[in-house]
Design a protein that fits this description.
This protein is an alpha+beta fold. The chain contains 18 helices and 21 strands. The protein has four domains: about 100 residues, Gnk2 domain, C-X8-C-X2-C motif (Killer Toxin P4, Chain A), CATH 3.30.430.20; about 110 residues, Killer Toxin P4, Chain A (2-Layer Sandwich); about 90 residues, Phosphorylase Kinase, domain 1 (2-Layer Sandwich), CATH 3.30.200; about 220 residues, Transferase(Phosphotransferase), domain 1 (Orthogonal Bundle), CATH 1.10.510.
């Protein structure tokens, strides 16, 4: 046992040492262009028609001194055709553009040898080629963020300033024809610092796709690099960059003019400093490891006796305190920015508040157990979520929900007031929502009459803003994974609040999607890539939102209410009527005389865009919010929705047992 502790300490020290070295070398090893992306595994053979066409493609690029800043063409025919384009940043001169493209062509062959697809970004230009026609097609897969190693002192305020100027430039580049899909601008950040920014799209894109590409880029850069003084986002279809110096006017970062850096002496000094510091650090690590080993050996024997005494005390009846301590030690203590004890409510208080979970206080049956109304000692009304004994949401999911909700603060997210863990009891105490959940009102013909069109639009927009906060604006990047009407609560003024974060997942800044072998969520609101392959991303929530949107404006469930063999689900029926030009037939009859038909069709259109089968085709939530506001004048045509043939509709039957009344909220389904 002593040796286990010694090895554990040694591993920790080793990790600290490696992190220190990586941090120390970071500045010296900072990557400079070119950057490359070689996404396909397929190679072309040497001396093949494709290779000859690729060579001819590079030779076909304009070679005179007045070359355009954007150019695309194809060479060859049938399966050996090569499609290629280049884009130079608009602020450079034509001869610099020509030089940059020549270098990019050489780097493409060097960095992506024998690949049938490649993208190369140089300092001021981009080169792309493929064996598939990508002209005019938006592509934001594999976006690459690059950031300055120097940080700003006020990252949150800086993030807000960056997002604002990039959003303004995006609108100018995308929707002002005179800009040629390029815009630059600057804004004061402090008394001494000015932020300079640039956005640009490839000119083969539509205005809408340019806007979408740049909005996606802004979201990517905001989630990973907002703390950095400068950053750039490399995308196949667009480009953005911001710095605290006028890079597009020829200025360089102040550090670039430093005498030591110019002569190379600065780097030599850094290297010697790293060597000296590393040597000292190794000696310190050895001393600390030795001290830890001695301490572990001396204290372990004494602690065994104390542990035995503690176990005796626990077994003698102090189980409540021990459960509380175990939960804190295992799941709460040490978590950043969380004072869990402030939110802990003991079981006795909850029993009194709910009249010992009286049936008369039951509000409904949630995905993991019943929900009760309660009144705390100070008169505050609350909703208590009680996990059922056979619920598959164990301590891990419960803890996940507690930690997650306590860190999230938004007017369209339900507010967690407290929690309790006592023996097998796991309870969450929320603010009370007097109008229950959206499904209770939306799918009851009598209650639905109280939902006017303006209230439905308010609910749709509130849900969208809540999801956008989870995806982009919170300090975490959260994917809910179980958006549905029963998880949208309504306050006294019918404002929506998203609830139930037990299945939510946090994404790191650079992640695009993740995979799981345990499929959780609700069929009917679950996108195909998740239901079939276990892949989830922010586009999973976009799909669920699209289903919700269509249900809210039509007053119909996605599954279970449609008996037509041709269109057994709401999505299938919506798609069929949309193609026939008869989408107004799905308008809720209760709204027929009070709803603007054009506005209904716009929301209907946005709903179909959100539920497209290919996740890549769905908009981001930031784009969806812009479309809902009507700021996007033209919407692209949607593709066929996922599950438009009615798959999984039979799963909306309640299971006849004591442990499940949750519409298959959790399923152990292995991906194919």
């Amino acid at each position: 046992m002593e040796m286990v502790h010694i090895f554990s300490v040694s591993r920790t020290i080793k990790q600290l040492f490696l992190c220190s070295l990586i941090a120390a070398f970071h500045d010296l090893a900072r990557a400079d262009p070119p950057y490359s992306l070689c996404p396909q595994d397929t190679n072309y053979a040497a001396d093949s028609p494709f290779e000859h066409n690729l060579d001819n493609l590079f030779r076909s690029f304009p070679s005179n001194t007045s070359i355009p800043k954007f150019f695309n063409t194809s060479v060859g025919n049938s399966s050996d055709t090569v499609y290629g384009l280049y884009m130079c940043l608009n602020y450079i001169q034509a001869d610099d553009c020509k030089t940059c493209i020549e270098i990019a062509s050489q780097d493409g062959e060097r960095l992506c040898p024998n690949k049938t697809e490649a993208v190369v970004w140089e300092e001021v230009c981009q080169l792309r080629y493929s064996n598939e026609n990508f002209f005019g097609r938006l592509d934001v897969r594999g976006n690459i963020p690059k950031f300055n190693v120097k940080n700003v002192s006020e990252p949150e305020r800086y993030k807000s300033v960056v997002k604002k100027i990039l959003s303004n430039l995006t609108k100018a580049a995308a929707f002002d024809p005179s800009t040629e899909m390029y815009a630059t601008g600057n804004v004061s950040f402090t008394d001494t610092d000015t932020l300079y920014a640039l956005v640009q799209c490839t000119r083969d894109l539509s205005a809408h796709d340019c806007n979408t590409c740049l909005e996606t880029a802004i979201a990517d850069i905001s989630s990973c690099c907002y703390f950095s003084r400068g950053a750039r986002l490399l995308s196949r279809s667009c480009y953005l960059r911001y710095e605290l110096y006028a890079f597009y006017e020829g200025d360089t970062e102040p550090a670039d003019t430093d005498e030591n850096r110019a002569t190379g002496k600065g780097n030599q000094r850094k290297i010697w400093m790293i060597i000296i510091l590393s040597t000292v650090l190794v000696c310190l690590i050895l001393l600390v490891a030795l001290a830890c080993a001695v301490y572990c050996i001396r204290t372990r024997k004494g602690s065994r006796k104390r542990e035995a005494q503690v176990n005796i005390q626990v077994q003698s009846g102090n189980s409540r305190d021990q459960n509380r301590t175990d939960f804190r030690d295992q799941h709460i203590e040490g978590t950043d920015d969380l004072k869990a004890q402030e939110f802990y409510i003991d079981l006795k208080t909850i029993h009194v508040a709910t009249d010992s979970f009286s049936d008369s206080n039951m509000l409904g049956q949630g995905g993991f157990g019943p929900v009760y109304k309660g009144i705390l000692g100070d008169g505050q009304e609350v909703a208590v979520k009680r996990l059922s004994a056979c619920s598959e949401q164990g301590t891990e999911e419960f803890t996940n929900e507690v930690l997650l909700i306590l860190k999230l603060q938004h007017k369209n997210l339900v507010r967690l007031l407290g929690f309790c863990v006592d023996g097998e009891e796991k309870l969450l105490v929320y603010e009370f929502m007097p109008n229950s959940s959206l499904d209770v009102i939306l799918f009851d013909p009598r209650k639905r009459a109280q939902l006017s069109w303006s209230e439905r639009i308010n609910i749709v927009n509130g849900i969208a803003k809540g999801i956008l906060y989870l995806h982009e604006d919170s300090r975490l990047r959260v994917i809910h994974r179980d958006l549905k009407p029963s998880n949208v609560l309504l306050d006294s003024e019918m404002n929506p609040k998203i609830s139930d974060f037990g299945m939510a997942r946090i994404f790191a800044g650079g992640e695009g999607e993740a995979n799981t072998a345990r499929i959780v969520g609700t069929y009917g609101y679950m996108p195909p890539e998740y239901a079939m392959e276990g892949l989830y991303s922010i586009k999973s929530d976009v799909y669920s939102f699209g289903v919700l949107l269509l249900e809210i404006i039509t007053g119909r469930r996605n599954a279970g209410d449609h008996k037509s063999k041709k269109a057994p689900t709401l999505l299938a029926q919506a798609w069929q009527l949309w193609n026939e030009g008869n989408a107004l037939e799905l308008m809720d009859p209760l709204l027929a005389d009070t709803t603007d038909h054009d506005e209904f069709l716009r929301y209907f259109h946005i709903g179909l865009l959100c539920v497209q089968e290919d996740a890549f085709d769905r908009p981001t939530m930031s784009s969806a919010v812009v479309m809902l506001k009507g700021e996007t004048k033209t919407l692209r045509q949607p593709e066929r929705p996922a599950f438009s043939l009615g798959r999984f509709t039979d799963h909306y039957q309640l299971e006849d047992n004591n442990c499940s009344a949750n519409y298959l909220t959790i399923s152990d389904v292995l991906p194919r």
